[in-house]
């Protein structure tokens, strides 16, 4: 789930009800108050430097005041335990990193709006510090090979091997992202107004604040066919969740609409949805009761193995009844053009929220790594789908597809990516192509924007209709430029031979444009642009090839009949 989708999910009425239920269920009553006083508006010129970086048309942001949360009275016990390590240990911790960890003040994650063809937003992180640091020391410690570049008139540094870029607005702040995301952020037009402008001002002084631009968020498929009476809920301009720490923690959420009439319609839809949700509780309630109440009177105690089932049924009934009470009168009120709710936790639970804010702030910089892992997993799955399609094609026709569909004179017309469309559940799209015309004919070029998601590598954005997935083509490669191959022709073994990989510059997916291989010449840099190679083998497996593998080894893995023995890579 992307950060933007997580923010949206956090703001759903059901999630708000769940939070209230959780606070009640853990033992102490919580106070629900939808009339919390609104914070006074903050003028744009008075914004802190990190919040001022958020463009008015941003997709969303999360802002955490880490230092304030750490200093709060509610986390005193945890703070004192940390300090028990002693001055020597704390000084050693600060001395081993730049900037010193103890000087972290605020952390912000910003998502830019998605452009057409993008499957995930650009994310950047902003970290501010309480003490000045030397940017050159940071670069030397963590990005020694970084190159200085400019974007949007601002300097930044990029390490192409690590795919990390960093910008230093001043000596107390750094902005970081990947090698493509950060320059896109720096070049993004600064807009003074937009849906996020008001949300940014509300974030000032909040321990934790998250907002999402609902208008720019892609609508999940399951909501596209929402009944008309519930659609006013989807008309929100933006949504926010905030955490304030005082003597007790207060979690507040808002859905902000364009005008009061839209907010009234949304409130009506929300209460109707709550009625429907109450009806939805009937089935799980009946299931829980079935586990607890026998059809016939018991003549003897139930087996001891049934105890967990019975206890679970009682707990489920209790939770369902709490949810029913909340849904019967949702703790949501309308404040002008907004729907608002706030939940005040009991004092003893405030420490939990305080430490949660600290944890979120410290973990936000790791969001990019998490996204990278998830994106690589999706790219791996894409390559598996491509390899499976190749196997199914070969099972149908007795050969693998040619690298290109050609005319009777051997002129290349369309890519193998078109040939396997029926085997990646895209038969309807396949039937739209004129296979006797080139990829850029008047008819076929209209189909370029319809590129299947299987051909989109989520790790890097590319233009609409372009893909990084290519096969190796040449007389000494898995795909011959003239004749079709069979699996039995791969005498080096299907588990030892490259089939397709994500590498190089993106190409138009319908164009017969792949990795041309001449074994007598140096290989192209297969590690670009991802810094490593994700490759599908002819046996259908997908493997990660780390940078630094010898060209001789890569050539041996590309050739299908070379007879080389490859044992380690």
Helix residue percentage:
25-40%
Report the C-alpha radius of gyration, rounded.
29 Å
Mean pLDDT: 83
The structural class is alpha+beta
β-strand number: 20
What oligomerization state is this entry in?
single chain
Beta-strand percent range: 15-25%
Folded structure, characterized:
The protein is an alpha+beta fold and 569 residues long. It has helices spanning 3-11, 13-25, 49-52, 66-71, 76-83, 87-95, 135-142, 181-187, 195-203, 260-280, 282-292, 307-328, 350-363, 367-397, 416-419, 427-430, 551-558; strands at residues 31-32, 60-64, 104-111, 123-129, 147-151, 154-159, 164-170, 173-178, 208-212, 238-245, 249-256, 333-335, 338-344, 404-406, 412-415, 466-473, 498-508, 515-516, 533-537, 542-545. Strands 1, 2, 3, 4, 5, 6, 7, 8, 9, 10, 11, 12 and 13 form a 13-stranded antiparallel β-sheet that branches. A five-stranded mixed β-sheet has the order 18-16-17-19-20, with helices on one face. The radius of gyration is 29 Å and the shape is globular.
Brief digest:
With 569 residues, the protein is an alpha+beta fold.
Question: How do the strands and helices of this protein lay out in sequence?
Answer:
Blueprint: H1 3-11, H2 13-25, E1 31-32, H3 49-52, E2 60-64, H4 66-71, H5 76-83, H6 87-95, E3 104-111, E4 123-129, H7 135-142, E5 147-151, E6 154-159, E7 164-170, E8 173-178, H8 181-187, H9 195-203, E9 208-212, E10 238-245, E11 249-256, H10 260-280, H11 282-292, H12 307-328, E12 333-335, E13 338-344, H13 350-363, H14 367-397, E14 404-406, E15 412-415, H15 416-419, H16 427-430, E16 466-473, E17 498-508, E18 515-516, E19 533-537, E20 542-545, H17 551-558
Parallel strand pairs: 16-18
Antiparallel strand pairs: 1-13, 2-3, 2-9, 3-4, 4-8, 5-6, 6-7, 7-8, 9-10, 10-11, 11-13, 12-13, 14-15, 16-17, 17-19, 19-20
Helix pairs in contact: 2-12, 10-12, 11-12
């Amino acid at each position: 789930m992307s950060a933007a989708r997580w923010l949206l999910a956090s703001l759903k009425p059901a999630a708000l009800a769940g939070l209230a239920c959780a606070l009640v269920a853990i033992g102490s009553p919580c106070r629900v108050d939808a009339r919390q006083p609104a914070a006074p508006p903050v003028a744009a010129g008075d914004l802190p430097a990190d919040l001022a970086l958020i463009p008015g048309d941003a997709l969303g942001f999360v802002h955490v005041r880490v230092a304030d949360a750490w200093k709060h009275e509610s986390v005193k016990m945890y703070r004192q335990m940390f300090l028990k390590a002693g001055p020597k240990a704390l000084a050693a911790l600060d001395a081993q990193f730049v900037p010193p960890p103890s000087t972290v003040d605020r952390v912000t994650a910003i998502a830019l709006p998605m452009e057409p063809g993008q499957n995930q937003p650009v994310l950047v992180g902003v970290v501010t510090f309480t003490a000045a640091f030397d940017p050159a020391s940071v670069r030397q410690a963590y990005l020694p090979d970084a190159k200085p570049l400019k974007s949007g008139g601002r300097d930044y540094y990029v390490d192409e091997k690590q795919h990390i870029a960093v910008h230093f607005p001043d000596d107390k702040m750094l902005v970081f992202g990947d090698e493509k995301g950060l320059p896109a952020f720096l070049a993004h037009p600064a807009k003074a107004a937009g849906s996020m402008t008001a949300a940014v001002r509300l974030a000032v002084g909040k321990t934790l604040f998250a907002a999402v631009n609902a208008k720019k968020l892609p609508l999940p498929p399951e909501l596209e066919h929402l009944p008309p009476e519930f659609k006013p809920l989807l008309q929100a301009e933006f949504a926010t969740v905030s955490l304030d720490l005082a003597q007790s923690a207060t979690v507040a959420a808002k859905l902000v609409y364009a005008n009061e009439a839209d907010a009234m319609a949304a409130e009506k839809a929300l209460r109707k949805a709550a009625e429907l949700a109450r009806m939805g509780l009937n089935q799980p309630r009946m299931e829980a009761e079935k586990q607890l109440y026998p059809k016939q009177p018991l003549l003897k105690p139930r087996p001891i193995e049934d105890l967990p089932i019975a206890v679970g049924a009682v707990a489920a009934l209790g939770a369902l009844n709490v949810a029913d009470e909340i849904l019967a009168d949702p703790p949501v009120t309308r404040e002008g053009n907004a729907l608002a709710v706030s939940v005040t936790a009991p004092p003893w639970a405030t420490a939990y929220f305080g430490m949660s804010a600290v944890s979120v702030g410290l973990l936000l910089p790791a969001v990019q790594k998490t996204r990278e892992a998830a994106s690589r997993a999706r790219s791996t799955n894409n390559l598996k789908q491509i390899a499976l399609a190749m196997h199914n094609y070969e099972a149908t026709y007795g050969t693998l597809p040619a690298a290109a569909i050609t005319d009777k004179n051997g002129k290349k017309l369309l890519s193998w990516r078109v040939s396997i469309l029926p085997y990646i559940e895209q038969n309807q799209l396949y039937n739209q192509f004129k296979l006797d015309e080139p990829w850029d004919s008047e008819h076929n070029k209209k189909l370029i924007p319809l590129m299947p998601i299987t051909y989109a590598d989520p790790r890097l954005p590319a233009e609409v209709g372009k893909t990084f997935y290519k096969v190796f083509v040449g007389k000494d490669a898995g795909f011959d430029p003239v004749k079709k191959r069979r699996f039995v022709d791969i005498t080096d073994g299907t588990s030892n031979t490259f089939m397709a990989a994500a590498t190089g510059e993106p190409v138009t997916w319908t164009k017969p444009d792949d990795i041309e291989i001449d074994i007598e010449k140096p290989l192209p840099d297969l590690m670009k642009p991802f810094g490593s190679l994700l490759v599908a083998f002819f046996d259908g497996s997908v493997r990660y090839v780390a940078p630094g593998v010898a060209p001789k080894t890569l050539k041996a893995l590309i050739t299908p009949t070379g007879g080389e023995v490859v044992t380690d890579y």
